[in-house]
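#structure-requests
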Amino acid sequence: MSEAEVARVKELMGAKEGDTILIVADSHKLACNVLGKLRLFIRDTYLTLDKDSLAFCWIEDFPMFEMDDTTGKLDFCHNPFSIIK
């Protein structure tokens, strides 16, 4: 990216000194998987979490199912309560 493009991204994101912007460019599925793994890495590396406390949140509009690229079958995603046989 050029300096002008970086400046525009910072402006659009409202980034300030010390902020981090992560950009992953690939298929939607691969980009989501990479960013999910990166999120967990950052959590486990930099955050001090109380493993005995609960913090609830409400998630909306997550995909429930996706097509498996290898098998061509429908499989669950972001939904640990579903099993497809």
